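batch_manifest entry 22 of 60
target: Anoctamin
source organism: Podarcis lilfordi
requested by: lab member K.T.
priority: normal
notes from requester: please return tokens only, no post-processing; we will run our own comparison against the previous entry in this batch. if the run fails, retry once and flag.
--- input ---
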Amino acid sequence: MENTLYEESLKNLFPTKWDFVLVCDDHSLNSEKDKKKKSFLDELYRKGFIIKMIKDEKLFYGVHAPSVMFRKYQWLLKNVDTDSEVISGVQEEDYWELMSTTRIRIVSFILQNIKIQSTKENLHDLIKKKVFETAFPLHERENLGAFLKMNWARWRDILYRQPIEKIRTYFGEKVALYFAWLGWYTCILFVAAVPGIILAIYGLISFNSSQISKEICAANTTMMCPLCDQKCPFWPLSETCTYAQVTHLLDNEGTVLFAIFMAVWATVFLELWKRRRAKVVSNWKLYLWDEEEEELAMELINNPETASPLHQHSYIRSTVVLILVGLMICVIIGIAHALVIYRVVVTVIFTQSDSEFFRERASTMAVMTGAVLHYLTIIIMSKVNRHVALYLCDMEKPRTFTEREKNFTVKLFTFQFFTHFSSVIYVAFFLGRINGRPGDYVRVGGKWRLEECHPSGCLVDLFIQMAVIMTLKQTLSNFVEFMLPWIGYKYKLLFRNPKSNNRVHMEESARDPCKEEWLWNYNLNEVNVFSLFDEFLEMMIQYSFTTIFVAAFPLAPLLAFINNLIEIRLDAIKMVRLQRRMVPRTANDIGTWLLILEAIGILAVIGNGMVIAITSDFIPMQVYKYTSSPCIQKNYTGKDCLAGYVNYSLSVFNVQDFANHENLPERKDPMGDVITHCRYRDYRNSEDYSHTVEFWHILAARLSFLILFEHVALCIKLIAAWFVPDVPRGIKNLHLQQKRERLLKRLRRMDDSTEV
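--- output ---
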């Protein structure tokens, strides 16, 4: 048998530690796959890699890179990890420990960029063609790996501080920054959760004292217009008593203050994180680190003769991508419209049901089932959005993986944002406002009436929508996120080759400890380049729920806080115990996610302002209080200022004006009198049903409040951003002193060189 170059390398003295392991099937000798495998391994050998093969059910190839690659890396990047004086004085074993994440990162880059000379295929192409099955770095089951397993990846440590420095040393800076950010975000969430809890408690205390709730609960003779065209009777307003009381929990005097507080909180959170991040990366000596420079250095280490890819931009290509993004957003909004139609149809079905339970709760049942269906569409569209975003990124032809990741981040978050919030936006700003009036309803397909809000407002519908989606996403999603890797890992351990437990296999493992180590790592769940990306994306969507519509869901920060305490340990357990080791990546910030957080902060101001101005009854109540309430009367007797507001907010409709008034159900009120008029939520006169003066006053007040609220909140955000510097003074002074010392050394060297 002719020995290849990689087979000759097996005669070398093997190192005790390996950078990467390649896994493949035992292909038929001289088959196409076997030839490509050998060609790839030959390329590795030419670069000085040491390769070791172990045969089990699969073929395992351990690769160990030559130390010259890492010396080149240190030289090119001016000693990124530490000073040259330190690195030159360490032994090879200490050098490994010091540079383990850097070694893995460099080796991963070289493995991904080596190409077979004959076919120009790289490792990614070979994996797609089943030449290799996978490639991964190895976990350290002792030392640091054991430390993280016993002091971080445990549920009992849920309230303890995370060992960020240890995480950085084991998983790299990018993973460490994710957990540093997540831990900081969770701590700051507690600050937001406290006023949310106080607001909810205030609503509970005043549950039965709201003047509007009292009037609705006592309105036994106020008959409301039917909610559907068939079988739906006239109904007394008092039937919505409980609904009105729940509305007061959310829509009370403290809601506006809480919304402004959350706008300021979002800004302060970001500014404090920027300070925290500056301190952390400064301690890591990465404050001035340049990602593009590191990628160029690794390209030169891999092959100094190959030209680096250049930046590309095409206006035609960008226009096409923009159009396709717009079309995808239209598709997502179309799905939201389908959900609206579902709610309309289900409402009709429930209101025509023979069950009194469903008839009385038709609207609530439609909202809840619609929210569950919305959650299911989120799960499906998340997969579709990912494929579309990847396709669009490939169209843009990014220069490097980092540039591709940034483009992918923006596109996928945009798609996911519309997927999660299109239906919520409809409930918040359109439900009950585009449905027409009795006698002239807006209908879907000319048949089904659009939904109406309850007489006490639409805020509870928005609350239900958000509560259902957020609760399902934080419970079911986390359960699946943890259980799938756990089941996959246990399945591999249980059903792998039975010979792994026999005596011969145990003796082989004793002679070659690498075999057991590599098999253990292989049986762990696979990770990919988007594993950490998915964790960030999940938190961005949660942050959006926590800030943008928080005025309708004041307990959102509390739910997010509880979820994140669990999320931190869940992610830690997955990374240390259930998944293969991630390829470490250097970073000095959280990248594009910071820009997304700032965009969400601005959307939070706009969203909460619109919820208060449009969704809640805060503005109509204020207009009534200062224009028509008992408090402005000369003979004011101390009545509540909102007394009479319910009657003020309901319009009158003549039953004879219904097109099918002869076919209407029984038209008698609880007193036995024939119903000649019914009430509905709007501001219209009872003659020609045109909008009243009060409608225009309220509309002007809503728009004025929205503009005022957004300007005040944005000004407060800007002041808070200015007041809290991004970088602590101590860090600025430290870098200033370092620059001065560096320049002073250069000046002294110049003086020494010019002496005669």
